[in-house]
Design goal:
Elements: H1 7-18, H2 22-35, H3 43-68, E1 84-89, H4 99-107, E2 122-128, E3 131-137, H5 152-159, E4 164-170, H6 175-188, E5 191-193, E6 200-204, E7 210-214, H7 217-220, H8 225-238, E8 244-248, H9 254-261, E9 266-275, H10 282-293, E10 300-302, H11 314-321, E11 324-331, E12 334-335, E13 340-343, H12 344-347, E14 350-351, H13 352-359, H14 361-365, E15 367-373, E16 381-384, E17 389-390, E18 394-400
Parallel strand pairs: 1-3, 1-4, 4-9, 5-9, 7-8, 9-10, 11-18
Antiparallel strand pairs: 2-3, 6-8, 11-12, 11-13, 14-17, 15-16, 15-18
Helix pairs in contact: 1-2, 2-3, 3-8, 3-9, 8-9
The chain binds guanosine-5'-triphosphate (GTP) and magnesium ion (MG).
Residues 99-100, 118, 137 line the site of magnesium ion (MG).
């Protein structure tokens, strides 16, 4: 153990080494990590032990899963997804931030529940241009939620399945306290906020060694590459991987490696909604909220349900942020009322091919050509092939042979 560590951390490490049961070992190692100061000299120790921790947690989850398979009960916190799922969440220590008010404003589904404590999820459907958004108010989460306090595990597990999360922050109260708790508990539940999955893959192989390959110009430009390669190998090894190829496509950190090795990590889009913007001094607080959090949260909105001040184009904001586009299919000259929602984030573009497959594979297999109608273009109507790149609001008619 390095002499860079404070005595308390060293003592905790010893407790970890002495601990018997897996759960106890996990706990001690987590406590150890929280006691290690974060700087250059401790970076590697932290990464190595995080990797060990991830491995132990995986083993622990596997064991639990095996025990559970026989006794499956449906949790009241688990919501079946319908349309684009948007979850409203807040900090229990700041009650009544206005989630039910927001749910009711968008969906009309909770008039008589405003001002009452929400203990179980409330659901409503918000329609925006024929697109269905399922708005779910989750009970607020408290300190220790990620350890299961206050149904925390069930709530966080539903958050992991959502398309979008809205942190609802009361602007008339301490915003740091509210933000800190949400960010902390989500991070402990392996929910990464507004991050893309890291540009790397880890494949297990038969060969008895760990190989690290830098495959793009950006990856090759990483400075201190040799040192990093050694560190990556150690971290991967500590995670129990003895042979494999690590392919790197861009700039990465050791934490990214651990994330890829941790199957429970999910990447979620999160926006912040400041509420009660009608109360005094909230304008100033809202400005602070924006200033402190824009780096990590590109969308921060100020709202007031008292004054019915809320973006009319909320659906539009969500679609853009989630990189989703609308495609209207046409058949025999009749345009469908409801658009198909296509995901731009997967391949960075949506092609006629993707739409054909989404409608039905047979449209792709027997494809002949497609007609695309696009408003505002000089040539409004075009005959195109499978690889044609589509834009938001395009109308597409697929012809088969
Ligand atoms: N001044 C003001 N009060 C609001 C606003 N939005 C909600 N409130 C009030 O805040 C109280 C709590 O609102 P709820 O919508 O029930 O809050 P919640 O977040 O659902 O609360 P929990 O479910 O208990 O977590 C109610 O009395 C609302 O009328 C607002 O924009 N301005
Ligand atoms: Mg509520």
């Amino acid at each position: 153990m390095s002499s860079n560590l404070p005595p308390l951390a060293r003592a905790k490490y010893q407790e970890y080494l002495d601990a018997g049961a897996l759960e106890e070992r996990i706990k001690k190692l987590e406590e150890f990590l929280s006691l290690v100061p974060k700087h250059k000299a401790t970076e590697k120790i932290v990464a190595l032990n995080k990797s060990r921790l991830a491995k132990m947690k995986r083993e622990f989850e596997d064991r639990k899963q095996k025990q559970k398979t026989t006794q499956k009960i449906i949790s009241p916190f688990s919501i079946k997804k319908e349309g684009i799922q948007v979850i409203l969440i807040s900090n229990f220590q700041t009650p009544g931030v206005g989630k039910t008010s927001l749910l009711n404003y968008l969906t009309g589904a909770a008039e008589d529940k405003i001002g009452k404590f929400t203990a179980l999820p409330e659901i409503g459907i918000y329609q925006y241009q024929k697109i269905r958004f399922q708005i779910v108010e989750m009970p607020s989460i408290m300190e220790g939620a990620s350890d299961g306090v206050g149904n925390g595990k069930e709530i966080l597990s539903q958050l992991r399945a959502a398309d979008l999360l809205c942190f609802c922050i009361d602007l008339s109260r301490n915003i740091e306290e509210q933000m800190d708790l949400l960010v902390y508990e989500l991070s402990r539940a392996d929910i990464r906020i507004n991050q893309s999955p890291p540009p790397l893959t880890i494949e297990k192989t038969g060969a008895n060694k760990i190989q690290v390959l830098y495959l793009t110009k950006e990856a090759k430009d990483i400075n201190r590459m040799e040192e990093l390669t050694e560190e990556i190998k150690e971290v991967v090894y500590a995670n129990g991987v003895r042979n494999g190829i690590i392919k790197i496509y861009g700039e990465i950190t050791l934490d990214n490696i651990i994330d890829v090795l941790t199957p429970s990590v999910v990447y979620k889009k999160v926006i912040i909604l400041g509420t009660k913007g009608d109360l005094s001094h909230t304008q100033e607080v809202f400005e602070n909220l924006k200033k402190s959090y824009t780096d990590k949260f590109p969308i921060i909105l100020g709202t007031s349900f008292q004054k019915e001040n809320f973006p009319k184009e909320f659906g539009e904001i969500i679609l853009k942020f989630l990189k989703k586009i609308r495609i209207y299919t046409m058949s025999g000259g009749i345009v469908a009322q409801q658009p198909l929602i296509m995901d731009l984030s997967v391949n960075l573009s949506v092609r006629v091919k993707d739409v054909a497959i989404k409608i039905h594979r047979s449209f792709y297999e027997s494809f002949d050509h497609a007609i695309v109608i696009r408003e505002g273009e000089r040539q409004k109507r075009k005959k195109v092939g499978l690889d044609y790149i589509l834009k938001d609001n395009d109308i597409v008619e697929i012809h088969i042979t």
